[in-house]
């Protein structure tokens, strides 16, 4: 094996490139579209004629073949994360605007319908998209780190655990990988989130990012942009752990119990539908888990010099868990479903498989041996 081959393999979990006949057969099946009987009655395969690099075959590969867990794989996942998070969060800006105002001023914004009515009356239609620029930039940066580093840490922790334990404790690996990724992603998101909340909840503060960011820095200082980082971690890390671990588990259960056809025999459009459905269910769980911290983030970024104790005193413990929750369930459920749909659609576009489903066959074989 050449040096380049070794360096390439070092980026891949051992169980994903084990040169077993099972792996070779699966690769041969995917590339030649042979019949399903190939797996049930395997014939000898000449491994010398098959490239041992784990390459994902696909009917559409506009950028050429992408090896799993290669630098190009991480670049593709990063780009998919930018598209999935940036576009979806920008699209639901009106919902986010009403939700933030309900959290900050519940006396004025008593319900979802009245909140939309008040904003329409006071600010007009254009007011519904206040803060869309920091939303787009902040969540694009967050999505890049969230999805890109999740794939990296998932592989990294799988290698540490080894094939047997990686398969046995895959949910723990999903949780650890997503938490590690979100820890980094929130550092990228926090400054834009601070400006967004201030622009959306204080009419007259600024028109958008261009004048809002320098005004915020003059008022709070540069470090003030990170005042809400710890509450943001408190909101986003549990949210992302639930988002990724529950999605992977839900999709696997769909294919195992609800869909009679194996995943690799389903059409790509059907798999993307499963990704959206799994993402929506995961999003509802995410909203419930992370909502108290979301209320804290909105309160702290709106009130100068406010503390967590001030937020608890004003909102109450029950208010932290319930204020704005129904709207956030609708928003996050739709948002998360769309994010997984867009992310997996981009992966399919560049020739990668969709996320979730059964454990890799090579991993199962390695665990049995």
UniProtKB/TrEMBL annotation:
InterPro entries, sorted: MCP_dom_sf, MCP_transmembrane, SLC25A3/Pic2/Mir1-like
Solcar repeats: from-to residues: 72-156, 169-253, 270-349
Source organism, top-level taxon: Eukaryota
PROSITE patterns per the UniProt record, alphabetical: SOLCAR
Gene Ontology process terms (BP): mitochondrial phosphate ion transmembrane transport; response to osmotic stress
Membrane topology: Multi-pass membrane protein
Pfam families assigned: Mito_carr
Purpose of the protein: Transport of phosphate groups from the cytosol to the mitochondrial matrix. Mediates salt stress tolerance through an ATP-dependent pathway and via modulation of the gibberellin metabolism.
Protein name: Mitochondrial phosphate carrier protein 3, mitochondrial
Organism: Ambrosia artemisiifolia (Common ragweed)
């Amino acid at each position: 094996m050449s040096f380049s081959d070794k360096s390439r393999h070092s980026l891949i979990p051992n169980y994903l490139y084990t040169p077993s006949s099972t792996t070779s057969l699966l690769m041969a099946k995917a590339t030649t579209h042979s019949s399903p009987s190939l797996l049930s009655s395997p014939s000898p395969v000449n491994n010398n004629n098959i490239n041992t690099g784990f390459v994902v075959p696909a009917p559409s590969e506009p950028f050429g073949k992408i090896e799993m867990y290669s630098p190009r794989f991480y670049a593709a996942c990063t780009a998919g994360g930018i598209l999935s998070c940036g576009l979806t969060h920008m699209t639901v800006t009106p919902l986010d605007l009403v939700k933030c105002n309900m959290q900050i001023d519940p006396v004025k914004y008593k319900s979802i319908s009245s909140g939309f009515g008040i904003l329409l009356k006071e600010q007009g239609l254009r007011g519904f998209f206040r803060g869309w620029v920091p939303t787009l930039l902040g969540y694009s940066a967050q999505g890049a780190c969230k999805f890109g580093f999740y794939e990296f840490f998932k592989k990294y922790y799988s290698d540490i655990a080894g094939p047997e334990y990686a398969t046995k404790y895959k949910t723990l690996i999903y949780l650890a990988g997503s938490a590690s990724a979100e820890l980094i992603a929130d550092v990228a998101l926090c400054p834009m989130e601070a400006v967004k909340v201030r622009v959306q909840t204080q009419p007259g503060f600024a028109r958008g990012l261009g004048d809002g960011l320098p005004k915020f820095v003059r008022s709070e200082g540069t470090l003030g942009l990170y005042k809400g980082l710890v509450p943001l971690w408190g909101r986003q890390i549990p949210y992302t752990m639930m988002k990724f671990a529950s999605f992977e588990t839900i999709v696997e259960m769909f294919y195992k119990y609800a869909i009679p056809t194996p995943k690799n025999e389903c059409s790509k459009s059907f798999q993307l539908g499963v990704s959206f459905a799994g993402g929506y269910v995961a999003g509802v769980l995410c909203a419930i888990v992370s909502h108290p911290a979301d209320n804290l983030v909105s309160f702290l970024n709106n009130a100068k010099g406010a503390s967590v104790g001030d937020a608890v005193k004003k909102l109450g413990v029950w208010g932290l868990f319930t204020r704005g929750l129904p709207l956030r369930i609708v928003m996050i459920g739709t948002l998360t479903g769309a994010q997984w749909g867009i992310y997996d659609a981009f992966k399919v576009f560049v020739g990668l498989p969709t996320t979730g489903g059964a454990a890799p066959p090579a991993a199962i074989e390695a665990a049995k041996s």
